[in-house]
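Notes from the 1:1 (GR / supervisor)

We went over the backlog. Supervisor wanted to see one worked example end to end before approving the batch request, so GR pasted a single chain during the call. The sequence is below; no edits were made to it. Supervisor asked that the structure be written out right there so they could see what the output format looks like.
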Amino acid sequence: MSVSGSGLAPVALTMGEPAGIGGEITLKAWLRRAEGLPTFFCIDDPARLTALAERLGLTVPVAVITSPGEAAAAFGRALPVLPQPLAEAVAPGQPAPANAAAVRASIARAVELAQSGAACAVVTNPIHKGVMYQGGFRFPGHTEFLAHLVGQDGAEVMMLACRALRVVPVTIHVSLADAIATLTQAGIVATGLTTAAALRRDFGIARPRLAVAALNPHAGEDGAMGREDMDIVAPAVAELRAAGIDAVGPLPPDTMFHAAARAKYDAALCMYHDQALIPVKTLGFDEGVNITLGLPIVRTSPDHGTAFGIAGTGTADETSLMEALRQAALIARNRQDIPA
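Structure output shown during the call:
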């Protein structure tokens, strides 16, 4: 579905890790702007993008803007860029921790613009957490940093989506051992309530259906393979149903992601990171989008990393970023039509 010309403010696109593929997919996405993309502007170093376009042989003029309001007029002829200078020159595939401050500032500026209404949404290019940590970053990832910036630490919920599937992990960036140890009924319920609310407001689904995955194989087989599904997951599903949510589970994870099963729900609640990400990346690896639920701003991201190994080679696929831009604008438009 096209969102171009929808009357929305432009989308703010962050720099991401400058030594990764974020710049390349940004340039390629702009070249394909006629394929139903919303107007967007980058918060980035104009010199970096110009040099990268030349390196890759891409004809992408850069228009330096001073405010998001100038993006629409420039977008048809050039890539609008709100300047965020880098501390050091960039070599593809060779990250510099000194640039972490600029990456962080790009994200913070995008959030400020979304909060003020100057941008309708934030789309974040991939960061490399290890490099960010070396530069003083103290958050587990993008999602937690965004929640902190809007003053809602702990309210964030991560959804991964492609055309065939939406998944939401209850526990995210922790080890499998810690995911099991920290899984709680309250956590599942809170995630389910946030997900259902977002499906209504952000996706226009009047009565969302949630499928809740079991933690253990065969949903624990009445405790033979662990009691967590009896003692934690099932009571959480009952609580969600009591709150008026159409939720089913705990469902055996090995039978809930084939086509016939997916037709029965709008989103799957999964108990840990890989339980959610393996099926969605299998079904839609090139088109997956990371969507943050539960925040007052709209945020999406391509569902891949910095890909240092191919940075600067011209082979990065921009499909996921394009989907992230489309999803961001669609959610922003839905939020206009369906108030909180």
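Supervisor's comment: The first strand starts at residue 11 and ends at 14.
Batch request approved.
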